[in-house]
């Protein structure tokens, strides 16, 4: 077990250090917080779908949206539902995108319940950096499984979170449990 600064990892650091056991996570190389609001390689949520499921930590792909593990999870199984299209605001989504983001969110809840039996969920979108969005330019819906006691002293006191399993393992378990014909 060791610690590493969130600054050394890809994605959007949130100020927490994490304890990794026992191996370094499978992570998405070369990506960081986008430097501008343009789509493309500078945006992780545009880049992830171009990677393999394993490299991108993709759990499921729909027609206009996909499901990916959060690289900076609050809890094991913290998923993000993203439209493929680089849009920032919920009001910019097309009707098919709204419908599929909703359907994938519901399926994500069912799959996470089946795999890890959380006691509750937080669902939601942070719209704008002022509202807490790490990557504000590309909309993403959080699906956060919650367990009693998961917000206890560790993140508050140690500014660290111990994740009980590797992200790659979590992705594989969730992808295996994902239904082949999601409910619409
Ligand atoms: Zn994007």
Mean pLDDT: 78
In one word, what is the shape?
A: globular
Give the names of the bound compounds: zinc ion
Sequence of secondary-structure elements: EEHHEEEHEEHEH
First and last CA, distance: 42 Å
Helix content: 25-40%
CATH superfamily: HIT-like
Give a count of the beta strands, DSSP E runs of length 2 or more.
8
Count of helical regions: 5
Radius of gyration: 16 Å
The biggest sheet, with number of strands, parallel, antiparallel or mixed sense and barrel status, is:
5 strands, antiparallel
CATH class category label: Alpha Beta
Q: Record the strand order, biggest sheet.
A: 3-4-5-7-6
Q: If you consult CATH, what is the topology?
A: HIT family, subunit A
Overall structural class, as computed from helix and strand content, comes to: alpha+beta
Number of domains: 1
Walkthrough of the structure:
- This protein is an alpha+beta fold.
- It has one domain: HIT-like (HIT family, subunit A, 2-Layer Sandwich), CATH 3.30.428.
- It is 26% helix and 19% strand.
- The chain is built from 5 helices and 8 strands, in the order ββααβββαββαβα.
- The chain is globular and about 35 Å long.
- The structure holds zinc ion.
- Zinc ion (ZN) binds at residues 39, 43, 45-46, 86, 138.
- A motif (Histidine triad motif) lies at residues 138-142.
- This is Hydrolase.
- Residues 44-153 form the HIT domain.
């Amino acid at each position: 077990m060791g610690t590493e600064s969130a600054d050394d990892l890809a994605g959007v650091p949130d100020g927490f250090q994490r304890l990794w056991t026992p191996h370094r996570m499978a992570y998405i190389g070369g990506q960081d917080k986008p430097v501008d609001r343009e789509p493309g390689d500078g945006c992780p949520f545009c880049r992830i779908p171009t990677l393999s499921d394993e490299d991108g930590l993709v759990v499921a792909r729909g027609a206009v949206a996909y499901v990916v593990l959060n690289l900076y999870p609050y809890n094991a199984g913290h998923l993000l539902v993203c439209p493929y299209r680089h849009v920032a605001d919920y009001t910019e989504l097309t009707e098919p995108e709204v419908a599929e983001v909703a359907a994938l969110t519901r399926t994500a809840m069912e799959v996470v319940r089946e795999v890890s039996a959380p006691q509750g969920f937080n669902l939601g979108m942070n719209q704008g950096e002022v509202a807490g969005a790490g990557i504000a330019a590309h909309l993403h819906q959080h699906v956060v499984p919650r367990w009693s006691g998961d917000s206890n002293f560790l993140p508050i006191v140690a500014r660290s979170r111990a994740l009980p399993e590797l992200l790659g393992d979590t992705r594989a378990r969730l992808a295996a449990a994902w239904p082949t014909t999601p409910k619409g």
